[in-house]
Amino acid sequence: MKKHVFLTFAVAVIFSMVGVMVSGQTNTRRTFDRNDFWDRRNVFLTAEIGLTTEEVSKFIPLENEFKMKLFEIGRDCRRLTQESQAKKNISDAEYMKAIDCYLENRLKEAQLEKDYFEKFKKILKPEKLYKYHQADAKFSREYVIVRRPAGERDNDNNRNSDRNNTNTNRNRR
After folding, report:
1. Which residues are CB-neighbours of 69 under 8 A, at least 6 positions away?
2. Who's near 47: CB < 8 A, 6+ residues apart?
3. Strand extents, DSSP E, the chain
4. Whole-model pTM?
5. Under a CB-based contact definition with an 8 Å cutoff, are residues 80 and 97 in contact?
């Protein structure tokens, strides 16, 4: 069984790497490749959670469906935000519309997450469900950092270094 999980993981990594090499050779501008993103994310979640082949076949499609629905929920608010940012003078009514949209989306997202976690419970044991929640957040943090231009990443590293030094100094007192 472990051999199957390893083979699945290895094949996914190889396909991801080939995709990265091919896209890197043909496209010098950094664009978002949705398929590459999903492939990387699925491989990452599989490895971090420690999913079996059977769990992968049931969980990953359901989790991808969940993420797509989350994306769809936020679409109208993203459009509203883009339109607002394009304007020079934004009225109070437009600000309130954006705030209401944001809050309504948060409620819809929370309900959707609750519904899908009920479905996930039927596939994953509590430990793996907990690991999924952690792995999802970890992937998001790491992917955003990798997608940032090198100069911005360096600034983040300096800020984290400054923050760590401040915490160390507080602990010495």
Report:
1. 112
2. 9
3. none
4. 0.65
5. yes
3-state helix, strand, coil in the chain (%, to 5): 85, 0, 15
Contact 140, 105 (CB under 8 A): no
pLDDT per residue as tens digits for the range 110-147: 999 999 999 999 999 999 999 999 999 999 888 877 66
Answer for the pair 143, 74: CB distance below 8 angstroms, yes or no.
no
- Tokens for 75? 């679409």
Are 67 and 143 in contact by the 8 Å Cβ rule? The answer is no
Using DSSP, state whether 15 is helix, strand or coil: helix
pLDDT, one tens digit per residue, over 46-58 is 999 999 999 999 9
CB–CB of 15/38 below 8 Å? no
Q: Are 19 and 39 in contact (CB under 8 A)?
A: yes
Given a cut of 60, whether residue 59 has pLDDT beyond it is yes
Q: Is the distance from CB of 127 to CB of 103 less than 8 angstroms?
A: no
